[in-house]
DNA sequence: CTTCGTGATGTCAGTTGGTGACATCACCAC
DNA sequence: GTGGTGATGTCACCAACTGACATCACGAAG
């Protein structure tokens, strides 16, 4: 596994986020990102399929983690409880990185239509993965689809609340926000 | 309003759908579409922001129509009934064009990631528009967001079922499929 | 210590999406 | 018929991507 400076993909991710935040997505060229990371533009496209994908590196990992949590939920759990477990498990991954990173990343995504599109398709993919995991547990197709869709909606809302919450020592744990959002959902359907 | 051959935008839409279906989205260049429509590539971009947008021309119209129906719902209706009225009204627009057109269009979109992304952001825009319309009626923010999200989910599912249904004289009316899907939803939350 | 293979990177040429600037043409109003 | 106006054509250009091929670091085999 020979190479010059290890961690090219990580450097490209950092450089991209910094430049997108600084000059905006449109004002940043792939060559700019590659320069800052100390590689060429061609190398950028060897690590990421396109200029958008560089901000969505962890999405497969998140999907796998949530599907795993869903599959490992007790057999006695209802479909919605099962999905809730998967959504709660997502906080494991976000706890390993500084919240400030998530915040800056989301600010860039929210303000760039092209990145919003990519984010939406990632969530759609997550939805179908959760649906499939529910089907594997023997849940009825209609119920599975609706439960997965609802779970992703909860994730969406909770993530937005967590990002908007204050940071630092008096910050809120993502898992708590998810629990609160799930409570809200119960209240609505009651 | 002077021009050479009227209806350039319409010809471009037809040409794009035909070529996307025939050679695939990636196998079609904007120059190809423009050639078939009898214009230049530059003119294509004067009518449509990009290569994807050409398939989503009616979306603002659909959004306006649904928002209008939502706003005109009786004041006595619950938020979910209000949203249901908006979703039902969407069938008005689809009844004016051949179902075969919707089918071919959806086949292309479903098989092309870039077009799927664009479709998702259109539905996200529709969701926020419905949410805003509910807020204008005085509905609580949390309820409004959830109701809008649920309504769009119903539209999504119903549209998929309608597209998959047989065509021709023994075809199904879109409005009936929507009503059936709304019934399913009631059953799920019961 | 040399050689050799392998994987990551650089280089280069090319296609395509997309945009700005300017010229041009058809049509309508006066 | 003259002039204005809006849609179109033309041209030049940048940036996103891609395929083909060369090259370099490093580790394994001798």
TrEMBL record, chains A, B:
Keywords: DNA-binding, Transcription, Transcription regulation. The lineage of its organism: Bacteria, Bacillati, Actinomycetota, Actinomycetes, Propionibacteriales. The keyword Transcription applies. It comes from Kribbella hippodromi. Residues 6-66 form the HTH tetR-type domain. Coiled coil: none annotated. The keyword Kinase does not apply. This is TetR/AcrR family transcriptional regulator. Residues 29-48 bind DNA. Pfam families: TetR_C_14, TetR_N.
């Amino acid at each position: 596994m020979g190479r010059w400076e290890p961690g090219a993909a990580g450097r490209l991710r950092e450089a991209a986020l910094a430049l997108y935040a600084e000059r905006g997505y449109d004002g940043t060229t792939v060559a700019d990102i590659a320069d800052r990371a100390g590689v060429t533009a061609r190398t950028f496209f060897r690590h990421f399929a396109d200029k958008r994908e560089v901000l969505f590196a962890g999405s497969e990992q998140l999907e796998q983690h949530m599907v795993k949590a869903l599959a490992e939920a007790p057999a006695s759990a209802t479909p919605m409880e099962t999905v809730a477990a998967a959504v709660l498990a997502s906080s494991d991954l976000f706890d390993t990185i500084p919240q400030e990173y998530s915040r800056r990343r989301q600010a860039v995504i929210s303000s760039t239509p092209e990145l919003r599109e990519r984010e939406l398709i990632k969530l759609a993919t997550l939805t179908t993965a959760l649906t499939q995991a529910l089907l594997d547990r023997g849940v009825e197709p209609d119920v599975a689809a609706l439960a997965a869709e609802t779970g992703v909606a909860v994730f969406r809302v909770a993530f937005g609340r967590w990002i908007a919450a204050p940071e630092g020592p008096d910050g809120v744990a993502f898992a708590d926000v998810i629990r609160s959002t799930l409570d809200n959902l119960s209240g609505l359907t009651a």
